[in-house]
């Protein structure tokens, strides 16, 4: 029913997929945070036309399940890339796009919508009295942003950013549908070789929980180190 | 691809999807209440177990949780003497209930803790029993704080019901795959677009219902929200 002897060999097999998963998660995290910050700045500054476009983007990508977006990207992205590169005049066979590129693009598009909310919340938590004080002291807008706003906004955003890193880790498990092997896919492959499914999945569960614990600890310590307390 | 044939066929799988969603919502809500109770009032061993449960439900991918439920359900039922019990639908309901319960507990806990300490003290001083205090004073305020997060968790639940096709439950996503395979995988992009619209409509309906209750519960929000400033360097 439940075999303890396969747990250790399964663990070594599944740990082999951890570096690739963490690398992909990190790339998606950085890209989606940059794009999400751009969206959040557009909403914060209330730029007329772009703002409605950003809202439409958020509604579209938050309403559709990520697995459906991944499939759409898998069937739509190669031809789109081929078309776009042909406009510029470059010869590119879209169907040679690696699957992990498609996965990264799809997940970045989905998570950017959530990151926009996170950064918007962090921007709203900024105390405008400090902006008034800075202007009265002669700060320019760019100086205000760089020296006063940015440190506080980053600290305010850290818990939600850690949360979205875990969301990305979980979303990467859907990559198995397009042949990108992450921790969960590796556990399925390992289990398929010796038919001890439950043991392999429990090993994967433990690995995910340990990664979540590590991420939360890093986020907590970073926040505590950066937050200024009066 | 004939939309007039495909859409009724997809909609025929909708009852199962909705059944799984509602079961997970109700069972998850009950689980979340229990888990939140044990996480707020600390009892030596059970609180750590509740913390572990919520950590599992939030950090492990939902696909993996569904697979654990699917492969663990026969083992679990075997303890009670029923042999060879394999049902993807029941496993999906179990897995999604556990997931939703853990997620919801992490929405309820800050909402409960955000109600001012003063309300507890005032209610106690007026002689309310714990149940009266909970129902008449704390719950309306906590519900108002929790509802946006609750709406979010319902939407994530609807997203994650799409994943039950991986364990063989015949919901909308699985039916769409059958439809696509029947046409030799020609119309995958269009079919996925139809699916995207269908899920967006489901999420929109859920959001509208929760938003209606959000607006209604605003009656119970304290009028003057106490200014809670984060500890930042002041000028």
Throw out a few tags for this protein.
heterodimer; A: mainly alpha; MetI-like fold; 0% strand; B: 235 residues; mainly alpha; 77% helix; flat; disordered C terminus
Using the coordinates above, name the CATH class of chain A: Mainly Alpha
CATH homolog superfamily of chain A: MetI-like
Approximate shape of chain A: flat
Please state the second-level CATH architecture of chain A.
Orthogonal Bundle
Q: Helical percent range of chain A? A: over 70%
Q: What is the CA-atom radius of gyration of chain B, in angstroms? A: 22 Å
What's the helix count of chain B?
A: 9
Largest sheet of chain B: none
What is the count of DSSP helices of chain A, taking H or I runs of 4+ residues? 9
Taken from the alpha-carbon principal axes, the silhouette of chain B is flat
Distance between the termini of chain A: 58 Å
Kindly estimate the percentage of residues of chain A that lie in beta strands according to DSSP: under 5%
Query: Would you tell me the structural class of the helices and strands of chain A?
Result: mainly alpha
CATH class of chain B: Mainly Alpha
Question: Overview of this structure, please?
Answer:
The complex is a heterodimer of chains A (230) and B (235). By secondary structure, chain A is an all-alpha fold. In chain A, 80% of the residues lie in helices and 0% in strands. Chain A is built from nine helices and no strands. Chain A starts with 6 loop residues before the first helix and ends with a helix. Chain B has 235 residues and is mainly alpha-helical. At the A-B interface, helix 3, helix 4, helix 6, helix 7 and helix 8 of A face helix 3, helix 4, helix 7 and helix 9 of B.
